[in-house]
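Researcher: For the record, we're logging two predictions in this thread. I'll number them. Prediction 1 follows.
Model: Prediction 1, sequence and structure:
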Amino acid sequence: MDKLSNIQRKIHEIRGYKVMLDFDLAESYGIETKVLKQAVKRNIKRFNGEDFMFELTRQEWNNLRSQFVTSSWGGMRYLPLAFTELGVAMLSSVLKSDTAIEMNRNIMRAFVAVRQLILNPPIDRVSELQNEVRELKKYVENVFKDYNDINEDTRLQLELINESLAELQAKNKALNKPCNPIGFHAIQKRREKED
């Protein structure tokens, strides 16, 4: 898997194509860049068309080099060749060594993996969690809103009950208030107290 990720880092997008540069391919195949270029020149008909291979312009090369802070590419007399996935596949018919064949298989796997990443980008777990938190927050706010509505209704009912109880207590006090005694016994008791 480490080989695959190393190869994927060497795949660049230029002119709308996913490409590998000649010196990266030569390094992967374990040959010199000039040997790779000679093999391509001897079989140039196999690489006809930009969808197989093209030479970078000076501006494309400068833009690509500026993306990397450190570079082991060094100085070059010629601009690099860029090989698309089709061009890399065609290289397998030109370079016949066991190393070249094995590396070509790995490179093709890397191109497929890059294509899969483009077609099926990995799920952004952070965004997914943020969305879930937003939904949860909205739900909790609605629950508390409903709770507050219920709470307000309950509070009003409790106030009514308390008012009713207060009225009943007042009536009860009024009903249970000792009455002034009426009749003969009451007059007699009053007189006794006065004496």
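Researcher: Logged. Prediction 2.
Model: Prediction 2, sequence and structure:
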Amino acid sequence: MKLTPRLLAIANKVDKGNIVADIGTDHGFIPIYLIENNLSPKVIAADINEGPLDNAKRQIMQKGYNDRIETRLGNGLDILTPGEVDTVIIAGMGGLLIRDILMESLHITQAVKQFILQPMVAQAELREWLVHHGFEIVDEQLVKEGHKFYEIITAAIGKQRIDDEIYYEIGQKLIINRDPLLYEFILKQVQIQKDIMEGLKDQGSKNAKQKYSECEKKVLKLEEVLKCLKNVGQS
């Protein structure tokens, strides 16, 4: 099974030997890859919609992995029982939806060893929720496909302290790991904030002024991180 760079990075985050649940599995590509490469002895491929799950079933049958990949139709983590899996993958959804899935099934999440999360939007909100609700962000990675960046967050039950709110916007582990895409990624984030500011500058409402100020502060923080990265690279 050949995966896109995004899916490949997600799959390779799985701790070898773990039993895995892929929530929102779509075509079942990650479960098939995990079995093909002996990264997991068993995978549960789950989706809330019958169409994608049927697609996954066909792919799994063609590969002959029915005995090692189980498909389940259902909402979020409701398809699991506590302690049934070691790793939960939730990828390709919004950060707020991922947050809600974890929050609605805390009795399940508390028995999971590893979470691999790939939010498409609202990454900062997801990081903040994780940190404030008994999760530790243990690793992060950036992946680029075309002009789009993807943020992959690996988390576990635990405690974490965040000293600066900018680390919700830019994962602290990305900085610690000196992710090779980080400089380019932050430059893009700065431009996004500046574009928002440009659209707000002629608006006189209180909300617009507040949003402008928030964006301005983010830009200053992001440029500070860029400066630090540049200094480290030159040292």
